[in-house]
Write a structure and sequence with these properties.
It is built from 16 helices and two strands.
Length: 436
Amino acid sequence: MSINHRNLYLSAALILIVFTAIYSLNSMTMYTSDDYTYRYVYQTYATPDAVEINGIKSIVKSQINHYQAWNGRFVSHSIVQFFMQYNKVIFNIFNSIAFLLLGFTIYSVIRIESDVKNRNYLLLFIYLMLWLQIPEFGSSVLWLSGSINYLWMSLIYTFFILLNLRISKDSILNGAILGIIGFLSGATNENSGPATSLICFLLIFQNLFLKNGMHYGKVFGIASSIVGFYFMISSPGSQKRGHIDYSLDVIINNLISVYSKSLVLFLCAYLLISLLLFLARKNNTVRRNDIYFILIMTIGHFASIYSMVLSPEVPTRSMFGSSIFIIIITSYLFNKVYGTKFFTRMVLLTICVLSVSSYIYAFIDIRATYLEVLSQIDKIKSAEPNSDVNVVMISRPKSTFNAYYGTANISKNKNDWFNSWMSRYYGVRSITGTYK
């Protein structure tokens, strides 16, 4: 067997393993939290006359309501409502593909900037880092609404970075593509969107001074990204929900909170980057352009973190984009030290052991919750229409890889918003949670 054929088979095996691993967890993750709300044309409270989503027109109407009342993330929530029309197995398949595509997009970004020494080693490293580094994996990758808000949106803004690196010629077509993807990238979410615009601006700045070239299509793409961000952030819903009375104490407290969360989440990655950078410098495998690229991605990483100082709340999963940028940096440097084969193999072996052990733990926890939720749904489905149903509440999940960790589910109060929307979805009068 030739080396090329062997590498191809290894790549196919890696893709199959990653797809199967993510699909298995997706298939054990039922609807939770906001999912039931987004099955209907958006309204604040569940009512018997809530209208189910049925096609593009209803999604557009729903997103106008959502834009006015809740927030401006029309890109992500339009996709959420599209998938809520169909059996969840459809989403499970596409979501697993989205995870694969994110890994390939990161790989492509690195391949444009640097010669890839070993494709399969690098891809394996990227997927392992995605598993270990993504914050609150359950609510940002497995939960339908959360995954589209974070995993799927990261595909858009990472692809925008890829386009800015790949496209080298000005043309109307290239400008249009950059404009469209730029607009969508800016409207992905409140911190990763503008951080991506900053990264792309710095890439243009680098190109202007090192190669003395200005690419007007890329400038248009960044301008379009800023418009998308403004359109999202200026929604009446975002303005009402995001209002905060700023003071020095509020900003300092937010800064401490953001710093603490980021340090917990990224400390190991920072240490690994320091070690990889030291080895790369020692082996003389990094050049000036490599340092510039790493510096630009680092600026984007910190910008996406500390822009949240001005946010009224900072859920850990909102650092998803920061994680993607740090994974790009780590993977880039890992590729640079590939010549130190003993070290790279030890790093891969270590993160493989960590990933497999954490996956087994997560799988057991997710399956336990899945069986409890399945029991709830079976009881609700078997109840008489318009009846009052009592179901046992799920046990507290143990792992952040579990989509039910920290997300809303059935509570004791039948009038709770989640209970009300789930009741509407299954056609019963009320659902009340009870203890075992």
